[in-house]
Amino acid sequence: MFGLEKKDFTLLLIVTVMVILAPFVLNPFPEGTAMAQMFNAGYPDLMQRFAIFGILVIGFNILFGLTGYLSFGHAAFLGAGSYAAVWMFKLLGYDIIPAILLSIAVSGLFSLAVGYVSLRRSGIYFSILTLALAQMMFNMAYSVLGNPSSSYNLTNGETGLQVYNSDPQVLLSATDPNFPHLFGLSMRSETHLLVGNWDFTLNAGYYLSGLFLLLAFYISIRIFRSPFGLMLRAVKSNQQRLNYTGLNTRPYTLMAFVISGMYAGLAGGLLACMDPLAGAERMHWTASGEIVIMSILGGIGTLIGPILGAGFNEYFKNILSKINDSVLHEWLSFLPDGFEDIMVTLIHPFVGKGWHLTLGLLFMMVIIFLPGGLVEGGQRIGKLFRRKKADAPSDETPAE
Amino acid sequence: MGILEVKGVNKRFGGLQALGDVNLSVQEQTVHAIIGPNGAGKSTLLNCLVGKLIPDTGSVMFDGQSVLGRTPYEINQMGISRVFQTPEIFGDLTVMENMMIPCFAKRDGSFSMTAFAAVRNQKDIIEHAMHALEDMNMADKRHMQSASLSRGDKRRLEIGMCLAQEPRLLLLDEPTAGMARADTNNTIDLLKQIRDTRDITIAIIEHDMHVVFSLAERITVLAQGTPLVEETPENIKGHPKVREAYLGEAQV
Question: What is the CATH number of the domain that holds B181?
């Protein structure tokens, strides 16, 4: 189906079902309960982030997972995509099609330039070069190109780029919603499905992002299974042999870099479509680091890993930052008074504003116990089940 | 006029004259061995042939074209394939995938952007790779991850990958270094079979005299960066200059 092997098609089908059902699956607790407040993740804002960061990490995985080139500057392409999209909103109006097209094109060009320079080196030198170039782009966006009083204010500096009433928006018609939209369908429009005490939100922006996620995933499968993908894996495995086999590694790695940059641009454009403003902090190197963390969390070089990694990261970030002291007191109220206070004090640094700490610990645990990321965890569980079912050892299939 | 003509090649590393005025002519469809004691400049010479090093002076002509200033992949596309001292293969890939890569390089050249076609639909490549594997008697191992092959099989695979490109010149850099006797003999048999069944020129750099004398038709002896003699194996054995160069090493 769609030129895919059965196994890959099944995977695509699973992801499709996941995307469609996410608003339901992620809202397991009835509305109004404490559990819903804390653990429900089926609201549009968060689900959009799942899908969009999924796209970003899928693209990053084409570079890092296949070729092994660790870019530490991919957030810059995400940011460039966002700026491009917001500029389209400012100049043309809130139609998302030109915005997304331009964000992909702009990020493609930026990644071509950055890749051309940094792919002259490999290993740590490559990483440092991408980091430096991306950080330069961040600083340009933050200050040099964002001075509101200058005549070339491209990024609007600290405030961030946003749409004002005074902007041209030449294609804006009176009937269009005053928000990014696809053929008049606002990205904010949503339908509420009330089933018993449950409230499921079906949001246009989320489903559009989900559609792009599926498309991005499908293209990534095709690339993984193509001769081009095989060459990228060969680059990771042994560049010397590839060179002495008559293959020029540079255009292969550059193409991988540009493709992953364009994925980042698409993600950036979509972020702007869901919320039409773009800030420089999106390009900061810590954001690039987060992309690396998400891809390692999910499983490097696997097809489904990036989606899992992005989801895991966004979900826990969201939950952990919501837990504050009063929530902790409520949860631990069954403990004796003094003991409760001690426990709250102990847990306090790990939640709320300290969510980085817990996520960092989770990340370390995954790296130490599951070097292949969440995908390896899934494989181990799968193997456990298979062993229980058929007592005989199953045939060794190489990890995909 | 040989297929490979090396003329007046010099290479200096700081104060060390690694190669001093090397002249070498490898005739088409022969097996030409380059031997010499440690530090004689064998590997430096080889690296000058494949584009890894550029000689300070002199010329290296392959089939009438200069290879100097070209990158390794360009030189490979001209028809020179190199086998490394320690087998260089794609350890993360399966044996079949390993073999497909030179087939792609032969069909599509040094770069091709076929990102949307599936590998499994490349019938000609699969057929080509299967043939190449059968030639190496490795078809039954095609699904194995190549890093898990034995040393001898890795060497076999690497040679097979080079041959799949149908090169005109095969360069071997100490192909039996670090191998057990049995593996060495297998490799010799394989190389003999290649010599006898294919239209190919083989240049071999080797330390092991047993390998050299069972394969080569011409032998060049290199010592301190300069060729001492070029002779047939029979005439090399008792040559006084060779004895001198190897003094203190194994009896020739």
Answer: 3.40.50.300
CA A104 – CA A98 distance, rounded (Å) = 10
Cross-chain CB nearest to A230 (options B50, B113, B119): B119
Q: How far apart are CA A146 and CA B146, in angstroms?
A: 53
Tens-binned pLDDT, residue by residue, of chain A (400 aa):
678 889 999 999 999 999 999 999 888 888 888 788 788 888 889 999 999 999 999 999 999 999 999 999 999 999 999 999 999 999 998 999 999 999 999 999 999 999 999 999 999 999 999 999 999 999 999 988 888 887 778 888 888 899 988 888 888 777 788 899 998 888 888 888 888 888 888 999 999 999 999 999 999 999 999 999 999 999 999 999 999 999 999 999 999 999 999 999 999 999 999 999 899 999 999 999 999 999 999 999 999 999 999 999 999 998 888 888 888 888 888 888 888 888 888 888 888 888 889 989 999 999 899 989 999 999 999 898 887 766 544 444 444 4
Backbone angles phi, psi at B73, to 5 degrees: -70, -30
Residue B154 lies in a domain: yes
Strand ranges (DSSP E) for chain A?
Answer: 161-162, 181-182, 185-186, 190-195, 198-203, 277-278
- Among candidates B73, B84, B88 on the partner chain, residue whose Cβ is nearest the Cβ of A246: B73
Report yes or no on B85 lying in a domain: no
Q: B114 and A228: CB-CB below 8 Å?
A: yes
Do residue B70 and residue B10 come from a single domain? yes
Counted domains in chain B: 2
Q: Is residue B141 part of a domain?
A: yes
Q: Same structural domain for residues B119 and B50?
A: no
β strands within chain B, DSSP E? 4-13, 16-26, 31-35, 57-62, 65-66, 80-83, 169-173, 201-205, 218-223, 226-231
Report the alpha-carbon angle A5-A249-A58, nearest 5: 45
Phi, psi torsion values for A24, nearest 5 degrees:
-90, -50
Pair (B97, B75) in one structural domain: no
Domain boundary among B165, B200, B217: B165
Chain B residues lying within 8 Å of A227, measured CB to CB: 104, 108, 112, 114, 117, 119, 122, 125
Specify the pTM: 0.92
Q: Which domain holds residue B158?
A: 91-165
- Chain B residues contacting A, CB < 8 Å? 50, 71-73, 76-77, 81-82, 84, 88-94, 97, 100-102, 104-106, 108-120, 122, 125, 145, 161, 165
- Among residues B165, B193, B217, the one where a domain terminates is B165
User: DSSP 3-state assignment of A364?
Assistant: helix
Q: Report the topology of domain A6-284.
A: ABC transporter involved in vitamin B12 uptake, BtuC (1.10.3470)
CB–CB contact B115 A222 (8 Å): yes
- Cβ contact, residue pair A242, B50, below 8 Å: no
The answer to whether residue B30 sits within a structural domain is: yes
3-state secondary structure of A111: helix
Tokens of A8: 């890959």
User: Could you tell me the CA-to-CA distances from B5 to A76, B66, B136, B170 in Å, in that order?
Assistant: 51, 9, 30, 15
